[in-house]
Q: What sequence folds into this?
C-alpha cells in the first residue's frame, strides 16, 4: 500500500510520515526545491527520508521565485518577532504552494497507483495560511477524484493530514512516542550561513513554543547558543 | 484586468488566449517545460506569446519525467494511427498535468492579483483525458477560492475554458476569424528532428481532422510533404 509523502525537512511532515508508516503505508517522499530562502531544509529532508526508510525520495525543482510574491522566496525580508496571534496572512505565505505541491504529489501517486497523499499541515499552531484549512483539503480530495485515471475508474485517493487538529506540542509528543529524532529536522525560515536557526521567525517561534509546551528540549538546538 | 494563460504552443491555447484578449484581459502567459518529448512546442509557445502581445511570458521547468507514467515524457513510444474513437485514457495522458499546470497558474495569478486563469481544454475533440472535463474545471475553481488569499478575502478567480464545448473545426474557424496565424503553432507529439509533425499521432490527426472539417489548409504544413 503506497503513499506519497510531501516532505519539507521540518518536524510536521516527518511526524505525519511516521504516522502513515505506522498504519502500514510504504512511503514515497517528494521534496520541492521551490526557491525557498531556507534551502537548508532540503538537506534536512534528505536525512529525514533516510530515517523514515522511504522507498524512494524525489527532489524536484520548481522555481516559484519566478512568480515572487512571498518573503519565503526572497521577495522582501523574513519577518521577525511578529505577533503570532495577529490575524491575517503573513508575508511568508507562498501563493498556492500547497496546491502546487499536492498536485505534483497527485501526479506521482497516479503513476505509482498509490492510495494516499500524506502531508503535515495543521490548522491550529499554523501561520494563518488559507491552504492549511480542513475545507481546503476536502476540496482537493474531491478534485483528485475528478482529475485522475484512478478517479475515473472508481479508485479513491485519500488526502491524509494526521496533524490537522493537533497542537505543535501534541505533534512533538506523538513524534517522540514514535522514536523520531527531531535533531534531523530544520524549521527556520532564515538560518545563518552555518544553517543555525534564527529563533525569531514565525517558524522558529512556533517550534520553540511547541517544545516548551511539550516540556522537552529541542534536539536541533543542542549546538546553538541561546537566543540573542 | 489580468489573466494568466496556460500556453502550450498548440492551437487551442493560442485561440483561448486570443478570445480572452478580445474580452479585454491583459495576458500573462505560462509555459511549462515538463520533460515533454515534443519540446519543440515550447519554442512555438514563445512565438505565439509574442504574436498575442502578452505582458509577460514565463517558461518554467517542472520535470514530470521524474515520475514517468506517460509516453509524452518518454515512458514508452508515442502511439500512432490509433483509433481515435476508442474509449479509455491513452498512454499520452500525463498524470495530473492539468492540475499541476493550473496550480502553478494559480500561484502566479495570486501574485498578480489576476481575475482569471485561461486554458485551451476542450471536452469534444480531445483525447479522453479526465482533466479536460467540465466537472473537473468546476472543482478546480472551487478549490482555487479556498486555496488563496484572494478567496479568503472574497475576491473570486474565474477558470476560463472558452473552447470547452467547441469542436476542433469550430476552434479553428474562431481563431481564423480573430486573424490568428496557426502557422506559428506546433501540435505534434512526435516531430522529426527538423520539427516537422509526424501526422500519425493523436494530436496531429485531431488537428488534421479539424482543418479538414473547417475546410481550410493547415498553414503549419506548408513546408511539409504529404503523409507517408
A:
Amino acid at each position: 500500500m503506497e503513499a506519497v509523502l510531501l516532505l519539507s525537512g521540518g518536524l510536521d511532515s516527518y511526524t505525519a510520515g511516521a504516522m502513515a508508516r505506522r498504519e502500514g503505508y510504504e512511503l514515497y517522499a517528494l521534496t520541492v526545491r521551490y526557491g525557498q530562502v531556507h534551502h537548508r531544509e532540503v538537506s534536512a529532508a534528505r536525512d529525514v527520508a533516510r530515517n523514515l526508510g522511504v522507498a524512494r525520495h524525489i527532489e524536484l525543482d520548481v522555481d516559484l521565485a519566478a512568480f515572487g510574491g512571498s518573503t519565503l522566496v526572497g521577495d522582501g525580508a523574513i519577518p521577525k518577532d511578529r505577533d503570532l496571534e495577529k490575524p491575517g496572512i503573513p508575508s511568508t505565505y507562498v501563493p498556492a504552494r500547497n496546491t502546487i505541491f499536492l498536485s505534483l504529489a497527485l501526479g506521482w501517486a497516479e503513476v505509482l497507483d498509490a492510495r494516499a497523499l500524506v502531508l503535515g499541515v495543521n490548522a491550529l499552531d499554523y501561520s494563518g495560511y488559507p491552504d492549511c484549512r480542513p475545507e481546503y483539503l476536502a476540496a482537493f480530495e474531491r478534485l483528485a477524484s475528478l482529475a485522475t485515471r484512478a478517479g475515473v475508474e472508481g479508485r479513491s485517493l485519500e488526502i491524509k493530514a494526521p496533524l490537522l487538529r493537533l497542537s505543535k506540542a501534541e505533534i512533538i509528543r506523538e513524534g517522540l512516542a514514535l522514536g523520531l529524532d527531531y535533531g534531523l529536522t530544520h524549521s527556520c525560515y532564515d538560518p545563518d550561513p552555518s544553517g543555525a536557526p534564527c529563533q525569531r521567525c514565525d517558524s522558529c517561534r512556533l517550534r520553540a513554543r511547541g517544545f516548551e509546551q511539550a516540556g522537552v528540549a529541542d534536539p536541533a538546538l543542542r549546538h546553538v547558543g541561546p537566543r540573542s
